[in-house]
Structure formats: structure tokens, C-alpha cells
Amino acid sequence: xxxxxxxxxxxxxxxxxxxxxxxxxxxxxxxxxxxxxxxxxxxxxxxxxxxxxxxxxxxxxxxxxxxxxxxxxxxxxxxxxxxxxxxxxxxxxxxxxxxxxxxxxxxxxxxxxxxxxxxxxxxxxxxxxxxxxxxxxxxxxxxxxxxxxxxxxxxxxxxxxxxxxxxxxxxxxxxxxxxxxxxxxxxxxxxxxxxxxxxxxxxxxxxxxxxxxxxxxxxxxxxxxxxxxxxxxxxxxxxxxxxxxxxxxxxxxxxxxxxxxxxxxxxxxxxxxxxxxxxxxxxxxxxxxxxxxxxxxxxxxxxxxxxxxxxxxxxxxxxxxxxxxxxxxxxxxxxxxxxxxxxxxxxxxxxxxxxxxxxxxxxxxxxxxxxxxxxxxxxxxxxxxxxxxxxxxxxxxxxxxxxxxxxxxxxxxxxxxxxxxxxxxxxxxxx
Length: 431
Known about the structure:
- It comes from Pochonia chlamydosporia 170.
- By secondary structure, the protein is α+β, with helices and mostly antiparallel strands.
- It has 13 helices and 14 strands.
- The chain has a domain at about 125-355 and about 370-410: Penicillin V Acylase, Chain A (4-Layer Sandwich).
- The chain has helices spanning about 20-30, 30-40, 50-70, 70-85, 90-95, 95-100, 155-160, 225-230, 235-245, 295-300, 310-325, 335-340, 360-365; strands spanning about 10-20, 130-135, 145-155, 160-170, 180-185, 190-195, 195-205, 255-260, 265-270, 275, 285-290, 375-385, 390-395, 400-405.
- Helix 2 packs across helix 5.
């Protein structure tokens, strides 16, 4: 009789140390089965762009540009590939799946690159998230938090294909240690570093998003998920901002960034601009979902938000309803966990669950890509002040929470070759 093994209630914790290639190998070896499962999934027809289109963009655009602008990232990806027994192109595909799911123009052969129901990719075209930061004046403990309900294809949760990735770079690199919540094989989706900086992110879609063309050297482009990792490798908050400004991309995204020093901001970015969304100075918190909110963006007539309507229009307000009465120094992790478990609009709620019987009327509306088996695949609270991470597998209403402590340099003084911090010109990963 075959024995059916129940999936574990917690995600795998992967710890990788050393220079880029070596830590990549450690990642790939420890999570090899999950990495290969993710590669196989995203190569399935209809999940992203066509395999031919993806291979052309990966080989001719992404890899050369990553090599030029983020060489340590490419080394780490090669290590993951070798450790997991897949190709470098496969690992680049995993790190670019956000971008490759948003190709909305014909390729060089004038063939459409979108696939799936209603012309959209079935599961990964535009999944949703809710992120927030809370500064010390808002919390009962006086700690700074950056948190997120990460909503994606429920496959990641059910098939156990997410990992908690802890990275400790070699001291010669002059980089902080990192804790990341990510799909196996990726350099990171959200995370925090030992300097007390946290980043969570939200999908955004604008009419500026475009498909990069092979042979177009006018502007380099990188997969935008690499920006989140590069933000966490920055030496200080000013370098974070400079990295975002200079990062070359072809799709939109929101980054919710906070620091233990007591500051936070959302960067709503398109391929050409960076919009800064600040909290009310008296509130000391900010919440973001999946549509543009900056008035400068909304006032433009030459570009528009492609968000087609859905839970993003109420998730942000719903979380705010839960926490606002407690915003003056009364917010606790228990309150946040309870608010992140809200089910208004179930199953497409703040705490998202797979829809067992999708509404065929809404599911057939033009431009509505969300009627699929989506779920909150992880709920995470980064305590930036204490360098602690509290995270659960799956929806927070029923997930098993774990707390991790991130050890590592809280200053980069004394690191780098010769015991000196690398200058901007010596830091090859600075775009």
C-alpha cells in the first residue's frame, strides 16, 4: 500500500554562507527538489510567455545585463543551478517569472507572447499582496515592522515550494546578512537585512510596461525581483534610494521599504519613473496593495494603471480599519496577525484562500486575471528593530508561525578587502 506523506506545516529553512557561488550551491543543494519543481511548473505552457520567447529574452537580454550590472547575483544563480542540477537559464527564469508573466506586446516575430485564459497567463499574471510598515511610535514595543501577506498561486503553498533563505555573505563583500522569504531558486521576494532594512513588494501594472527587444541596446533591463535583493545588500538607506533610481527595468512594481532607524516609504515604480508615497507624518504607518496611489502618477494622461479591479481596492482600507484605532503606540504583533487574517470578500480577501468554485461571470470579464487558485502563501512580519522574523506557511488565519533571529553585521565598518568598506565605484552591484 502506498504511503501518502502530508506536506509539512512549515517551510524549509535554508542557510547559505560564503561567496556568491558557494552560497548559491548551498541553496541549490538544500532545496534541489523544490527548485526543480518550480522550474518545471513555470515551463508549463500557459504559465508564463512561450518557452521560445522566454529563452530568447533570458539568453540575449537578461543574462548579459545581469553579468554587467549584478555579477555577484549571476554567480549566485549559477551556484543555485549547479547545486540543484538545472541550467543557469532555468534559474534566471525563476528570478524573472514576475517580468515574464507580464509580457504584453508581440515579440520580434510579431506573435503574441501572452498565454492562458482570456489572453492572460493562468496563475502568475498578476497575483496580489498587501504590505505595510509600522514605525516605533505606532507599536506598543517601540519596534519598527515591515510586514506582508504574500498572495500567489496556491501551488507554492500546497506543493511546499517556498523557502526561508538565510544568507551570510563572505566578509570581503562588505554586505549585510539577509533573511528572505522566497520561492526556491530565487534570490529573494521579500526580506530584511542585519542592518535593519526591510523590503516587501506588491505587483503593479502600468501601460508603460513593455517587452524588451533583442538587439535593443538603448537601455539595459534586469528582472525586477533582483532589485529587492540589491536593496537589501545596500550599505545604507541613501544607497537604497539610489539603487532604486538607477535600476533598469521594463515592468512596474511597488517596494515597501522601512528601516529600524525609524523611516519608511513606498516606491511605486514604472519602467521610467519612481513615485515616492509617504505616510501621514502623524500616523507613523503606511499600507499598500496592488494599484497606484501616487497623485502624480494618477494625474498623468499618457500612462495609466492596468489593474483591472479586484480586492486591491478594499484590502488596503480593510487593514487600515483594523489597526487605525491602535495607531498611537498600541499596535502589537497579535493585533497585526489578527488583522492580516481578515476575510472580507472571501476567498479573495486580505487573508486569501483558493476559490473552489470560481465565479464564471467575473472570471470571464476582459482583463480580469485573478480567478485562479490563489492564496496567501506566506504571512511575514519583519521586526527591523530586533532583527527578528515571524512568518507562517499559508494563510495567517491557520498557519503555524515561527520566529527566527537574524545574526550578522549591524555595521559594515571593518568589512571588505583590507578591512575597508567598498566605495560606490568598487561595489559592482550598484546600478
